[in-house]
Fold each of these.
Amino acid sequence: MIISVASGKGGTGKTTVAVGLALSAENVQLLDCDVEEPNVHILLKPKIHHERPVYSLVPQIIEERCNYCRKCAELCQYHAIFVAKKNFLVFPELCHSCGLCSVACPEKAIIEKERQIGVVKKGLAQGIDIVYGELNVGEPMAGPVIRDVKKEIDRRKLVIIDVPPGASCPVVESVHGSDFTVLVTEPTPFGLHDLKIAVEVLRTLNVPFGVVINRAGIGDKKVYQFCEEEGIRILLEIPFSRKIAELYSRGVSFVTEMKEWKTKFQRLLETIMEA
Amino acid sequence: MRQITVLSGKGGTGKTTLVASLAVFAGKLVITDCDVDAPNLHMLLNPSIMRKQEFKGFKVAVLDESRCIQCRKCEESCRFNAINDFKIDPILCEGCGLCAYICPVEAIELKEKVCGYAYISKTKYGFMSHARLNPGEENSGKLVTLVRQNARQIAEKENVDLIINDGPPGIGCPVIASVGGVDLGVIVVEPTLSGIHDMKRALKMLNHFKVNPLVCINMYDLNIENTKMIEAFCGSNSIEVAGKIPFDPLVTEAMVLGKTIAEYSPESTVSKEIKEIFGKILNPH
């Protein structure tokens, strides 16, 4: 089973919940797909046993063969190739590695070359298999790194995916293929606003989901009203507590220090399995 | 014209709270919300929309089933696994056009698609340029670029010489679009190990694009030791720490009422600190 943990708004507690779930189950694999700012490893400090580069394919134009016909530049939807009279330029950061330019070049002057844009790391912590990606700083496209992290999915295990914030392509890429998504929110106007956006994404993707309310007790009651009106199940509430916040600040999961929460997360997992 | 972007790396550290109050202290500025996937700034600044503009960020491949001869050439060549059993999944499609190009019977066409909307609005504190990307869409970086272009246009027209951008979380495409060519990148960090890790990556990103950094520590009293660690790190890297904002439930109270903390509680330490930060942003060391 694949369970992803997403939110819309950043900083609502996705990693806290993903790590809490992983620590409360057996035979687990935890994937951190927030490759721009991965944080799972801060909380679990895995011992890394494998590391490999992530490449994206970018065009390389063979000068001797190119006759500057501009076909590649005209076809490229991402403006990643510029061709002048007797000159060309490739912008690798804009390239989506679709391969169209090399297929379409009438002179067979374009080959594709690997360019490193990040890494995937695999490790182990407290019996949990951990996989996380890191996008190289300055690179815009998280997609290929997320896809490479997800290639490591081990179907024999319970797979938990920590999803990046927001509601655009990296979120879709991370959530795609999940059996269930846990949406983490906080009971504030910002939390509610972004929860609604996340709900829209999940409904489009057709993935079943439920909500975990983190920092319960702050803000107002509107998140509860929204869930009730929309028939969305509230799976768990984690109260706002200075102790939990303080543990998190030191890079410690509250599930490790406050044992009663392990039972609560186990129950949350059972609820998800039943759904 | 001075352009400043507030960012954080990690989400939820208080970017929007800070930007909204900076707008109050600035008096005259153009404000943008560059978090186009999950914008929140409008909830504190209550803008009235003056202009709404369609955003056609990219195209999507559309298959004409009546022409399709089921040769699977498109399916085999699509790098995004967006074609399965003669159906194109618009969510996975990146609009590259390879399928349309190789289809032997011209059954596939690239069609423009509305991916969101950009808005120009008026607030109490000045004009605001913002947007909303349709959920699940691509190309948020391109929409951010549009938001910033719109902001510069109004600023020029109205003779305003300050733009403050509320940036998205992360360090990828939309963040890079938010910091390109700005005079200052203000990083809001919380004193957690995750926050510090993410701040360091955000600082590297600013350095990569040659943008001057400045750091603000939010909720600094949640972990004084980590706050000291941030100050020491910034000190040894010659990065100015412009201010330390304490944790205060008043911030959430103000948010619930749809107000900036600067208006809701001008006498609070949070507001006073943000006012000082504003001064330092205008005149960084």
Amino acid sequence: MNKKRARAFLAGLLVASAFCAVSVASASAAPAWRFNGEELGGTETLLGGAEKSGLSLLGVTTTCDNFLYQVDIWNKEGTGEGNVVDLPLFNCYTNTTCTVEAIEAESFPWPAKLSTISSSNYLTVKGVDVWILYGGWFCPMWGWWVNVTGSAGGLLSNATESATFSTSSFKATGTQLKALGGSVEWNGFFPSEGFGWNREEALSVS
Amino acid sequence: MESGRGAERLLSPRLRQASARGVLALAAAATLVLFGCGEGSPDDRAASTPTSQGRQAEAGGPGNEPAAPGPNPVPGPGTQASSRQGRSSSQGEQGPGSQGQPRPVELPSGEREKGITPQQRAKATVLTMRLESPALASAATAPGGVVTLPAAYTCDGKDTWPELTWQGVPEGAAELALYVMSLQPVAGEPFYDWAVAGLDPSLTGIPSGRLPKGAVEGRNSSGKVGYTICPPKGSSETFLFALYALSKPLAAKRGFDPNAVRRDIVMQSGNSGGMAVSYGRG
């Protein structure tokens, strides 16, 4: 191999190395939505549903037997993004004498984004806005209408195709739900799946 | 091959040289790329296989709807659950901390919870005021915002209230009322630990153990006119401090019955503030 050819070969190696470095960096920093291992191209509707999920504030835990979320998802420049567009809640009650007279999620869409933190993948939702009206004469919060706002981060699992929201996932993502400046705890395990073009396909994030 | 050589003959000698170098450079780059850049897991490589973009090519960029309408994503109540039935397992890589197999999304069979109606909105007491205690700023806080009350503010100490501060009293408020209630009823009745009425709406707090002029205390559920936080020995309770902004004066007198005036307070109060504390006795 003469000098010019050797130089060309080295240049090729250099370009390829740079390409690889960029690829690896983006893969670790920006997880994407995938179905059956293939990166999602357009937009898909994702449905997540927890059998039981609870919000705790002022010593009262409000649980809903069914707690769904509907998210429109897509990938933008290799990073998974989305919008929570609906949060239907079913059969809600508390661990006290307080009753849930009404509960409503508002101000949709709530923007969502995937991220990788310490090699774990998370879904972070911003703009959370939920109103709860408590009742029950024995309840100290009788007649109170409470607004829960903020952001929520859930740990994603490819094996179980789920998002788990807990104190540790909130801490990892630096997210917080608040009611009147006080922190609100939200726990829930949400199996999730595509309900549009990618129905019945395995959902993963990487 | 002949046709390739024919095409090469159309190139100038300089271009031929440049072309040869380019082929070498491309070969080097391809070798590296094909062998996975020397890093990354098999999953990473699997992820770089052709994507589903072809199938969804018409779907467009972020936020765009698919080219053709998909199925209704949120089925109504009672709808059969998941599309996941019949799928054995995830094909994706296993995420950290994840165990088990995918579970179907359980769709509820009942009615969706109702949102608040305009009538409820009009009557509701909106939690808009911020009620805090500087004395509890360094106290331990349990998940859900429940602060551990130091013994000094219970019957194990001086049994007097901590300093309280508040913000957000709405303009036009005529009076403030302050209640402390046990979160759980006692013997089937609401349990009032402290009730104060007649607080001037211009106040932004009260010091520990001293009430401002005009304020009156009601008779609590322990039978005392004043404050008592004293759960039974060996138990722990949660107490809710609640501040109400009233649109008209309550005209309550010392020793008033907190249970009797509570409905009036809640009905005429459009705004409240809350703070939860817990105390356990060994």
